[in-house]
Amino acid sequence: MSRADRPVLVVAAALVDDLDAPRRLLAARRHRPTALAGRWEFPGGKVDPGEGPVEALHREIREELGVEVELGAELPGPEDGAWPISTRYRLRLWAARTDGEPQPLVEHDALTWLEPGAWLSVDWLDADVAIVEALAERARLAGGLR
Ligand SMILES: Nc1nc2c([nH]c(=O)n2[C@H]2C[C@H](O)[C@@H](COP(=O)(O)OP(=O)(O)OP(=O)(O)O)O2)c(=O)[nH]1
């Protein structure tokens, strides 16, 4: 597979209130592009050339939410640890927490902390629904996301 054909890696954070006993999950509402506007996602974005995934994640969260995060466990997906989200992109997701106050600075026009049992109550991007389900299951079964 040439570099051009290879899916682009997107990294994102499942921000929770507590990595050991997660109750609330942060969802972010996109305001662009038009096709995705109004849908909810995990904050994050594409890894730049020459950048490591974790480095990219800290950069994206700083740019998009204006906070520093502590990372917890990665939620591995079914394709070499990544989640297929479209033909062009695949996503790696880490649990995270912050002492800061996340703000919707660039990509998003709203943030919401989803309460326990209501993690699926917003209109997530299509590919994210299965990921949120897996995250909720993992948080419940493993007793945390550290
Ligand atoms: N950030 C993020 N993107 C997701 C999620 N689920 C999902 O399908 N995607 C898609 C939406 C976009 O097509 C793509 C990520 O692109 P992005 O627009 O967030 O990347 P970026 O911040 O680097 O954006 P840009 O500077 O290139 O505009 O992955 C998710 O939970 N979080």
Automatic annotation (TrEMBL):
It catalyses: 8-oxo-dGTP + H2O = 8-oxo-dGMP + diphosphate + H(+). Transmembrane segments: none annotated. InterPro entries: MutT-like (IPR047127), Nudix_hydrolase (IPR020476), NUDIX_hydrolase-like_dom_sf (IPR015797), NUDIX_hydrolase_CS (IPR020084), NUDIX_hydrolase_dom (IPR000086). GO terms for biological process: DNA repair; DNA replication. Its EC number is 3.6.1.55. Residues 6-137 form the Nudix hydrolase domain. This is 8-oxo-dGTP diphosphatase. It comes from Actinotalea soli. The lineage of its organism: Bacteria, Bacillati, Actinomycetota, Actinomycetes, Micrococcales.
